Amino acid sequence: MTKLSRRKVAMHVAKEIAEGNQDIVRQLAAYLIQNKLSSLVGLYVRDIRHYLIDLGVVGVEIESAVDIDDSLRRQIEAVLKDHYNAKTVSVASVENQELLGGLRLQTADSVLDTSLQSRLKKLRTIA
């Protein structure tokens, strides 16, 4: 069996996801296990996320100390759609009380951290 490049596999998976084929994720998992590549799953995920951005599909993880409401979620989606010129924004919310307040947004290519936790860390470094 010829070895496929990680980036070619990631590009194919991203195209399939963008077209709505959710079964491709299961197929990718089977491919990684069968070829003893499961230790590289993080690299595949990163590459797939980057290719999805190129295809107009942006995923964002929103961390906050408390559950965010639908209005804020829609505002974040609108900003990201505009910023990335995306067709679709997929949002995953995670509560993380260690943030104390504020938000941490993470996409495939950037992190915006406005949490109180990060602000306190910055203050500690200059104090």
At a glance:
With 127 residues, the chain is α+β, with helices and mostly antiparallel strands. The protein has helices spanning 6-18, 23-34, 41-54, 70-84, 116-126; strands at residues 57-64, 88-95, 103-106, 111-113.
Protein traits:
127 residues; alpha+beta; Glutaredoxin; 4 strands; 18% strand
Instruction: Please tell me the total number of domains.
Output: 2
| CATH level 3 topology of the largest domain | Glutaredoxin
Largest sheet: 4 strands, mixed
Q: Roughly what percent helix?
A: 40-55%
Count of helices?
Answer: 5
Shape verdict: globular
Q: What is the string of SSEs from the N terminus onward?
A: HHHEHEEEH
Description:
The chain is built from five helices and four strands. With 127 residues, it is of the alpha+beta class. It folds into two domains: 1-55; 57-127, 3-Layer(aba) Sandwich (Glutaredoxin). A four-stranded mixed beta sheet has the order 2-1-3-4.
